Amino acid sequence: MASHRRPKQPSRARVTVLTTAAAAAVAISSQAANAAPSEKPSKDEVKAKVDKLYEEAEQATEKYNGAKEKQEKLQKEISTIQDNVARGQEDLNELRDSMGLAAASQYRTGSIDSSIQLFLSSDPDDYLDKASTMDQLSAQQVESLKKVQEKQRELAQQRAEAAEKLKDLSSTRTELGKKKSEVQSKLGEAQKLLNSLTAAEKAALAAAEDRASRSAADRVDLGNVGSASGRAQAAFQAAQSQIGKPYVYGATGTASYDCSGLTSWAYAQAGVGIPRTSQAQANAGTHLSMSELKVGDLVIFYGDLHHVGLYAGNGQVLHAPRSGTVVRYESINNMPFQFGVRV
């Protein structure tokens, strides 16, 4: 006969644990659902993060510009040294040829002059030290030998210098690549954040920037241009002609600019050469307080001097702000002012 047993009931403790776990899971799920909408940063938070990334990108840009400038300088120096070495080698060959001809002539007559023996010696300095008397050599022969030795030393020194500069060039190129990657990474992060905004939020940010730019342009006191020096005035007017051109890191015009690219280009139009980077431009002239600024003076921003613009009068600057913007006017108070520079 079959046995009928009642199924075993779960213990009270187990029921309590399962019930508590289920309740906790429901609570966590509910909290996650409620928290999800607030995880998306607000438009203002995105703007703050993007502005910070753009600032970091510009810092890297100025370092990139410095490495690029150094690379170009090293390439020119190396080319000059290599040209000098080539010419020096030709001179040395001519000196050797002339002495070789003299040796051949003396050999045919049955005697080799002591000066030629000196030249053919594996250690000319040692030979000279051991020579019983310098009277054996004519003044002209001594002079020829000295020229050969001087030219050999000169070429060895130049070759060593070129080798050092080539090593420096290699490390500079490596640094250039790193800074370029850093800039691109920062810009990529910023773009990713901007892409997270809705079309309406993007439009609102663009409209706010446009209003600020137009407000700054309205405040510019162009009547002060005449008070600037001739060169500063010419540089400022050149920069004005570039208003609306886009910011592109590493660019020096005329299709696009970065901050120091614009200022160096503008001063070049006035016939004045200033350094390429903002940090170097910071030392291109006399330092000024904000109250001493005149139109066309350079204005340096941030503690590490990574941004530069041109003073436009009435508390405004004309500059290439950052990626995603164009050459425009902006309030001098929008960035941490350090000092002005009168070139």
Provide a concise account of the structure shown.
The protein is 62% helix and 8% strand. The chain has helices at residues 12-39, 43-108, 114-120, 124-130, 139-195, 199-219, 230-240, 259-269, 278-281, and strands spanning 286-288, 298-301, 307-313, 316-319, 328-331, 337-342. The chain has a six-stranded antiparallel beta sheet.
Helix fraction, binned, reads: 55-70%
Mean pLDDT: 83
Q: In angstroms, what is the radius of gyration?
A: 37 Å
Low-confidence stretches: 1-5, 12-37
Tally of contiguous helical segments: 9
Tell me what you see in this structure.
The protein is an alpha+beta fold. 62% of the residues lie in helices and 8% in strands. It has 9 helices and 6 strands; from the N terminus they run αααααααααββββββ. The chain is elongated. The N and C termini lie far apart (113 Å).
